[in-house]
Write a structure and sequence with these properties.
Blueprint lengths: L1 E3 L40 H8 L1 E7 L6 E6 L5 E7 L4 E7 L6 H9 L1 H18 L6 E4 L7 E5 L7 H9 L1 H5 L1 E8 L4 E8 L12 E5 L2 E3 L2 H14 L10 E6 L5 E2 L10 E2 L2 H16 L11 H52 L6 H18 L8 H14 L1
Parallel strand pairs: 10-12
Antiparallel strand pairs: 1-5, 2-3, 2-5, 3-4, 6-7, 8-9, 9-12, 10-11, 13-14
Length: 395
């Protein structure tokens, strides 16, 4: 696995501490904890990767003429430092993940498709919800062609534009804006949700939530979305709304240090926020329950013509098939008649002693042909005369 950016790179003075535990922080003083606007960083990601894999970092700053390749041991200590080529920025590469833990490694290999699907969903959240960055992710298994997992396609920072780039234009066409706020609490919520009655299901469902520009899991927010939609459109069984919502909360009103991945969040006044969300959704969706689309007389005529066209075409096809079948039956009857005449001509060449047998056979065949249809009447007069002459000679 390899992750590359076009950032500013890592300064040489930080090479030694880059993968050590508790050696990175965004804080310069404890007082900054009260005004932290990001989710922070625990400083253990690179050290954990170093302990569980073969970790290498390639980095270059604008002041350096060449990049540097850094390799780290299991304890996070720098073990190799070599020059290499790279543009300004940083690349982090991981090989043999869980190589030191055979059971974990076996489980990863066994469920690699599931893990890639989870990773793709996570990357989609960042690609859609964080408009300041361009994201491109691909996957290649062995010698198979490379598959694009996520791509923002140089989309702008607009939420709708990024939804269209990452999830497709069809998904973007189902969305409409939603916005509300709680001024007394300094809370603002803005984003996109499905239009009335335009729910989806299965793998196409996406319900992303962000707090201060970082994707998180909000089970109550998702439940509020689905319950409100279901209460208004109970007939649409199995469908749920798309949602891409940004929650802007003041510092100190939420706690992100619940789980190591900081995906679970505790929020003050969460019930009030969810009630406001439900009211905003009802105001957006409920009016559509009492609106109906009416077709003009011209539109109704076009629909009627379109519905009758396939029926007329089917009738023409049926007539053509019946005619073709009649032609085939006629050809088979003509072939049988030709074979019968050929047999009669061959029998005419036999001697006179067998003429009585020929006459009897001709009489029987003529009766059979007459019973089968009108085609039997086409026997030639010359054949009948030959049969009569043969009978007279025998007599």
């Amino acid at each position: 696995m390899q992750v590359a950016d076009n950032g500013k790179g890592v300064e040489p003075k930080d090479y030694e501490a880059l993968a050590l535990k508790y050696h990175t922080s965004k804080l310069s003083a404890f007082s900054e904890l009260e005004s932290l606007h990001t989710f922070g960083f625990r400083g253990e990601a690179l050290s954990s990767l170093a302990a569980l894999s073969e970790l290498s970092v390639i980095t270059r700053t604008a002041d350096q003429s060449a990049a540097t390749r850094l390799e780290y041991g299991k304890t996070g200590k720098l073990i190799a430092n070599t020059a290499c080529a790279r543009a300004v920025g940083t690349t982090v590469a991981v090989k043999e993940l869980f190589g030191s833990l055979p059971v974990r490694r076996q489980d990863l290999v066994k469920n690699v498709r599931r893990e890639v699907a989870k990773l793709r969903l996570l990357l989609q959240q960042y690609a859609v919800m964080v408009g300041e960055a361009q994201v491109y992710a691909s996957d290649q298994a062995g010698r198979t062609p490379r598959v694009v997992l996520v791509s923002t396609s140089n989309a702008g920072s607009g939420l709708l534009e990024r939804v269209s780039a990452v999830l497709g234009a069809k998904a973007a066409s189902l969305l409409q804006p939603l916005e509300f706020e709680l001024p007394e609490d300094g809370i603002k919520v803005a984003g996109l949700v499905s239009k009335a009655g335009c729910g989806v299901k299965g793998d196409k469902l996406r319900q992303f939530c962000c707090i201060n520009r970082r994707p998180v899991e909000l089970p109550r927010g998702v439940k509020t979305l689905n319950d409100t939609y279901k209460s208004l459109y109970s007939s649409l069984v199995g469908l749920r709304p798309l949602a891409f919502l940004h929650f802007e909360l003041p510092p100190g009103t939420f706690d992100v240090n619940v789980t190591p991945d900081k995906r679970s969040v505790f929020i003050q006044n969460e019930i009030a926020i969810m009630n406001a969300l439900a009211q905003a959704l009802q105001a957006l969706w409920e009016p559509s329950r009492y609106r109906y689309t009416l077709n003009t007389a011209g539109e109704m005529l076009e629909l009627q013509r379109a519905s009758q066209a396939p029926t007329a075409l089917a009738d023409v096809d049926a007539d053509a098939a019946a005619t073709q079948g009649s032609i085939k039956r006629s050809r088979r009857s003509s072939a049988s008649l030709s074979a019968l005449e050929a047999d009669v001509s061959q029998d005419d060449c036999e001697d006179a002693n067998g003429a009585d047998i020929v006459a009897a056979e001709m009489t029987s065949r003529a009766s059979l042909a007459a019973g089968r249809g009108s085609h039997a009447s086409t026997l030639s007069n010359s054949s009948r005369a030959a049969a009569a002459s043969a009978a007279t000679a025998s007599s």
